Amino acid sequence: MSRLNKKQIAVIDDDDAVRRSLSAVFEQSGHVALGYANGQDFMDQAPLGLLHGIVLDLEMPIADGATVLSVLRAEACNVPVVVVTGTADSGLLRVAAGPPVVAVLRKPVGASELLTALDSGIADRTPDLS
Question: Each residue of 81-109: pLDDT tens digit?
């Protein structure tokens, strides 16, 4: 059984079709997907303390993935992040290196690859004792 069973996963992507598709991967696997159109919506609305995982695009308007990662790192967030991107920008990809990012996947990404990456990140997650 997957460690992702009944987990809340935030999916942050400005492309509505991609966001719906990625969310459907989790919903079809029995999880709760919370979709956000950009990083600012995520930072304003996400129940960060209740999330088990985050799927994050890097290139978005308003607040991009680098901004979200900066905030998560400043808050010492240990929720595993899987970056799903189509960018070839080496600067952006360097920003994605290191915790809480557990994987960087290139779009288009397969359902199995996405679930495996996030499942692995959840398995390795240090419990938040606060």
Answer: 999 999 888 888 898 999 999 999 999 99
Indicate the pTM of the whole model. Answer: 0.91
d(CA 119, CA 122): 5
Cα 50 from Cα 60, distance rounded (Å): 24
**Helix, strand or coil, per DSSP, at residue 32:** strand
Beta strands 53-56 and 32-36 are unpaired
Radius of gyration in angstroms for the set of CA atoms belonging to the chain, rounded to a whole number: 13
Distance CA 22, CA 24 (A): 5
Residue labelled with tokens 């901004």: 67
Angstrom CA distances, 37 to 18, 25, 40, 42, 123, stand at: 10, 17, 8, 8, 27
CATH number of 8-124: 3.40.50.2300
Instruction: Match 């680098």 to its residue by tokens.
Output: 66
**H-helix segments, 1-130:** 16-28, 39-45, 65-74, 90-95, 111-124
Q: Output the CA torsion 110→26→86→73 (10° steps).
A: -130
